[in-house]
């Protein structure tokens, strides 16, 4: 959307964007509708992304990643958003899970997990939410008990993105009894094929149809202690360090979706004729689009500011929470307005704006509900 030059990017970033856009056009867009029917993207896509250097872009080379900055990772996420490719969860894999292993893992863990994750041959997931606990970490019941040099993991996780495809799942589990839950949690990597690790059916969601989401079950899963990530009982502190990037990622994807919906709607209004001319000539509609553009431009400016700050390690928890909450709510407002402007066509699932409408609804919920975001922001006020 023409909201001015985005000065946070340089010439190298622009070249990367062109390459990412071409990759999305050739390897994702032609197949995304079928993946929505299948409920999962192909493993082949992950391997193609890996061989093209589009996974773990912000992970240091010495840890097995590509070694680019976070702005580079954001560019790929934006291009997926512009294409409406909501089922491709590269950001979860590369920008949310991989940093835990890169920053807090051992050299052996980095070699064993990050190298194949960068290649796309190992797909990752994170197991945090449970049937009885989402944003409230104190309600977690999955637990891991020491047994010699191993942990025995029992419990379940639900609404897990990449749940069907995942080869390695970073599981948040209680490892300290009789303590405040937040201070007795650990991160343990459970791998595909470990006895007792099972996954339920692919869950049917109202949106994000191509993104596999599952309930995971852990029944006396024996995990070697070398899969403990970041030390015992440290999970809460590690997650607090990494959640700002996760929430910024939601904002980045959400802004791209807003801009895409605006452009799809502008194109439709120029083509759709009623009352003797294109809808784009009607003053009421022009003013509604002007209001959308104004809101989107403000959201873009704030998100780019956050991205610029995060790229140099200066994004704080509260500002990331504000970005996630503001943009996710904006995304839903834009989706609502754009469906309305499409009329009956917008209510069809085979219309891009219809799919974007249902895809947007999860944004204020995951990565911490927007109610939790406002609580985090309020702590900086009073």
List keywords for this structure.
4-stranded antiparallel beta sheet; alpha+beta; 11 helices; globular; 4-stranded mixed beta sheet; 48% helix; 382 residues
Structure in words:
The chain has 382 residues and is of the alpha+beta class. 48% of the residues lie in helices and 15% in strands. The protein is built from 11 helices and 10 strands. The protein has a 4-stranded mixed sheet, covered by helices on one side. The protein has a 4-stranded antiparallel sheet with strand order 2-3-7-6, with no helix packed on it. A two-stranded antiparallel ribbon has the order 9-10. Strand 9 and strand 10 form a beta hairpin. Helix 8 packs antiparallel against helix 9, helix 9 runs antiparallel to helix 10 and helix 9 packs antiparallel against helix 11. The mean pLDDT is 95.
Topology:
Layout: H1 11-27, H2 32-38, H3 43-51, H4 70-82, H5 90-104, H6 107-119, E1 124-127, E2 143-147, E3 150-161, E4 168-174, E5 185-191, E6 197-202, E7 213-224, E8 228-229, H7 235-271, E9 273-274, E10 277-278, H8 283-311, H9 317-342, H10 352-360, H11 370-378
Parallel strand pairs: 1-4
Antiparallel strand pairs: 2-3, 3-7, 4-5, 5-8, 6-7, 9-10
Helix pairs in contact: 1-4, 4-5, 4-7, 5-6, 5-7, 7-8, 7-9, 7-10, 8-9, 9-10, 9-11
